[in-house]
Amino acid sequence: MKSFRILILEDDPVLNDIYFKALNAKGYQVDSAQSMEAARSLINSNPYDVFLCDVRIGKQHGTDLLVEYKDLFATNGTQTVVASAFGQYRFEIEEIDKELFLEKPVSLATLTSLIDRLVNDNRMVNGTTFAIS
User: Fold this and answer.
1) Which CATH architecture has domain 5-124?
2) What is the pTM of this model?
3) What does the DSSP assignment read for 41-103?
4) Fewest beta carbons less than 10 Å away: which of 26, 28, 49, 131?
């Protein structure tokens, strides 16, 4: 069985560590980045099944990566989940594409349940892109 690979982009080191440990404990192969540059390096080196992205990364916006890597994510079937404490970003995310938005604080049960659902949906369609809106 395929080990699903997840990339976390979260600049808060505590949240990054919590998300990493929770998803790793579920058996996923997890990489994490705390900067846009680190995320770009990982994205360019590895295909991901799920990209969990914080909106605000310092003074930058993680959503810029969604636009920058839109074609690559579509080719790889990467599902994207965007998280932010600022609900107004939900509309910006919806304009980019059919991405999933989680408003912080996000419970670990909600996060892991969503990731499990994405992975199971991806298995059911044999690796093709399956957008949930």
Assistant:
1) 3-Layer(aba) Sandwich (3.40)
2) 0.81
3) HHHHH---SEEEEESEETTEETHHHHHHTHHHHHHHT-EEEEEES-TTHHHHHHHH-S-EEEE
4) 131
